Amino acid sequence: MISQVIIEGIINGSIISLVAVGISLIWGVMNILNFAQGEFLMIGMYIAFFLNMYFGMDPIISVPFCMIFMFIIGWIIYRATIKRVLSGPILSQRLLTFALSIVLANLALSLFGGEYRTVSDLYFTGSITLGTLSISKTKIVPFVASLILSISLYLFINKTRIGKAIQATSMNKEAAALVGIDADFAYALAFSLSAAVTGAAGCILTYYYYVFPGVGTTFLLFGNIAVALGGFGSIPGAFFGGVIMGLVDTTTGVYLNTAFKYLSVCLIYIITVSFKPKGLFGR
Amino acid sequence: MSMILEVKNATKQFAGLMANEDISFNVEEGTIVGVVGPNGAGKTTLFNSISGAHKLTSGSIIFDGIDITSKKANKICKLGVGRTFQIPQSLNDMTVYENVLVGSLCRYSDISSARKTTVEIMETCGINKFKNSLVKNLNVIQKKRIEIARALATKPRLLLLDETMAGLTNKERQDAVELIRTINKMGITILTIEHVMDVVMTVSDKVVVINSGKLLVEGTPDEITSNEEVINAYLGEAKDVKSKKS
Amino acid sequence: MTNINKLEISKKTIIIAVIGLIVFALMPLIVRNTFSRHVMIMILVWSIIGMGWNFIGGYAGQVSMGHSLFYGIGGYASAIGFLYFNITPWIGMLIGVLISIIVAFLIGAPLLRLKGHYFAVATMAVGEAGRIIFINTKAIGGATGVDFLKPQVPMWYSMQFSGKLYYFYIFLAFAAVILGLVIYLDKSKFGYYLRTIKGNDLAAESVGINTSKYKLIAYILSASIVSIGGSLYAQYMLYIDPTMLMTLNTSLMICLVTVMGGVGKVFGPIVGSIILTLTSEYSRVFFGGSGNGMDQLLYGLMVIIVVLYIPDGILSIFSKEKLNRFIEKKSKKEVPSNEYDS
Q1: Could you tell me if B52 and B170 lie in one domain?
Q2: Is C202 exposed, middle or buried (0-12, 13-18, 19+ CB in 10 A)?
Q3: Which of A84, B32, B86, C192 is the right S-S partner for B190, CB 3.0 to 4.6 Å?
Q4: C340 and B132 in contact by Cβ < 8 A?
């Protein structure tokens, strides 16, 4: 049924959206393409998995813990590495994050092994029926959680003083410094927030996806395409881009060969930016 | 004397802002024409339209009898229009020599043929002494000079100069005026945007005044400095200028 | 005036290139163990790939993160050509180059209009799309790849050699030719134009450079050379699949090779290739045995260190500018003007 497919698409898309929103934050504020974003997702998933395994915690409940932990990790990574390449060539920045992703993924591989894991004892199970549509709760919950997180982030960036300080820094570092905003702090904050949000996405994702060290790669690519699709520096754009990705992914998966899902996603992106070089909502 | 440049009803609109509105004037070959006007009047926008950095919303630009209105910037350069930028667009990681060389490669197909012209032009512009320095280590004044040399290397028939006198001391200004005159004597028509009034009035054969995107008036330096509307537009700046034609 | 002087190629570059090639050519006679020879062959492969990418990513400054597509096209063209059609890989390689040129032309034209991150992400999408197409095309092996060992065919026809030395010297010849091309183009009008485009797009247009045309030419050139690298690699491994040749990881390593050494520099990709290949091959031997990812971990750490502490690439340590400034700092004197060879 078409509506079923669309609902599925939006829900799948909402996770990509969270990753995309995280990427967009870093891209928008520091103009860095973060190749390790997928690994933030992966780490979040492992956190949820272990909390679930040892404490029986539902992944949704583990989101706050995960976010705090990921925030700290993000802060450390920013201070140790990202900060130093900000003034250098852009290519170096990207390759740094790429190397970071290799390190993190293989660290996970060494520590946890390559087996695929799943969480158990989910809090929300079963499905709800809306007319002719039947949607499993394991999909609704991630969607709602993703929506809440994205909106919260958006409100934080646009409505709070700190959020606006971050925006100001991204628009004009020197001018922001002149009014007393410490660019370095703003960057560290943005980076860590992004890690936290993406880590949370990982937690939520365990509801219906396997946990393994290489899980970040697909979401990285999709997340990046979603952001570029939605446009540089726009959180709503990134969210919307993610949803589009999810829709395309699901609709083509149903009506065409599974493999062509990815292909269509890539093609949609290429076609879109050919006409709108700065993405749908970019500035 | 023929008209090397004809601007006809040039209009440029940016999403609601009318940067240039119905501007028309001609430039006679071999002359020096000054373009003046208050900040934000639309002078650089006009230059951008002429050089092909962007396209006019409506109107046309004829260079040497050829309609260049919708031609791309690199084609327009090949036809014979060179330009400098208000903020120097230097090739910072290359040497001075290489910056100028890139300009002369426009007319030559290989490095060795281009070398002679490059060296000559560097001499003319007085930048030979630091030809092997990386441009990023030089100051803005030197960068502007290099940019003039680079534009000159493309063997233009019309040279668009955008605020070359800004920030210069008196002595430096004299040198710059000398350079402009030398270039003009080589047969190159010059169209120059300037804020430094006594320079413009000294060096120009004709002056075009732009205000709020429109052409206010055009005429000889004498006519311009005594024009009421111009004086009002500048709020008194023009009153103190005496024009000297050499 | 000799031809070389006409082009302003510095004598230093020629001397380094010739000496380097001679030393490298003699290495296998000194170092005889199989693994080391394998490493040297891989260094050559990555040097070729790096030199190819350097044209678009280094000189022209358009950082493509999807070159694994051309690597794959090259590899598959020679492998499939040989396996199913008995075409010698020497020709198969050329077919691969031809296909790469066509593909690069078709996707380059729209993509090169994009800037910065948008371009990078678009090339990533293209690379990924390519991988997926290959994985799902059963006719060329799909995910299981292509196994094209045919020992019964004469080795010079099949380009399948029993000894590593054959591969080594053939690859060295290719690398030498490509290096020659790089040296020539580095100081040619083409090279200068690419550098200008990288330096300042606006300035480039204002001096008559058709930036779209030159970017596309650089892209097509880089695609061709990377394709050759792919063909050579395939012939060495005698087995290929999309996961080996066409992932995002591969694309990023292609960039890495040049960046580590120094972008837009003649010897950058070679230096980068040496460092990266040595690191990845030896750490795989010492740590990677149990499949626990330690070798990759170390590789990643090394890259991080180089990027953090030598951001302009390893060659920049030897640049005269750095040495001059170093001397300046030590003697606290003003160096009046910077004298450089052209």
Answers
A1: yes
A2: exposed
A3: B32
A4: yes
**Chain C from 299 to 328: CB within 8 A of any B CB:** 321
Same domain, B143 and B203: no
pLDDT band at C74 (very low <50, low <70, confident <90, very high): very high
Contacts of A20 (CB under 8 A, 6+ apart): A222, A223, A224, A226, A227, A230, A238, A239, A241, A242, A245
Domain A2-275 belongs to what topology? Answer: ABC transporter involved in vitamin B12 uptake, BtuC (1.10.3470)
Q: How many domains does chain B have?
A: 2
Q: Do chains B and A touch (3 or more CB pairs under 8 A)?
A: no
Domain boundaries in chain C?
A: 3-331
**pLDDT digits 0-9 by tens, A207-239:** 878 888 888 887 888 888 888 877 766 778 888
Answer yes or no: do B137 and B64 share one domain: no
C195 touches chain B (CB under 8 A): yes
d(CA A78, CA B98): 38
Q: In chain C, which residues have their Cβ closer than 8 Å to the Cβ of B73? A: 205-206
Return the number of CB contacts < 8 Å for A and C.
Answer: 135
Query: pLDDT tens-digit profile of A152-179?
Result: 888 888 888 878 887 777 777 777 777 7
Closest residue to C199, CB basis, from B78, B94, B130 = B94
Q: For residue B183, give its domain range.
A: 3-80+156-240
List the single residue in C with minimal CA-CA distance to A95. C256
Indicate yes or no: CB of A84 within 8 angstroms of CB of C136.
no
Chains adjacent to A (≥3 CB pairs closer than 8 angstroms): C
Average pLDDT value for chain C: 85
Which one has a higher pLDDT value, B10 or A162? Answer: B10
Q: Chain B: give the shortest CA distance to residue C103, in Å.
A: 26
In a shared domain, residues B61 and B161: yes
Here the ipTM equals 0.87
Residue A142's alpha-carbon distances to A20, A63, A80, in angstroms, are 15, 11, 32
The answer to whether residues C225 and C70 touch, using CB atoms and an 8 Å cutoff, is no
> pLDDT digit string (tens) for C225-240?
999 999 999 999 888 8
CATH 1.10.3470 fits domain C3-331:
yes
Distance from CA of A133 to the nearest CA of C (A): 32
Structural domain contains residue B245: no
Confidence check: pLDDT of C6 > 60: no
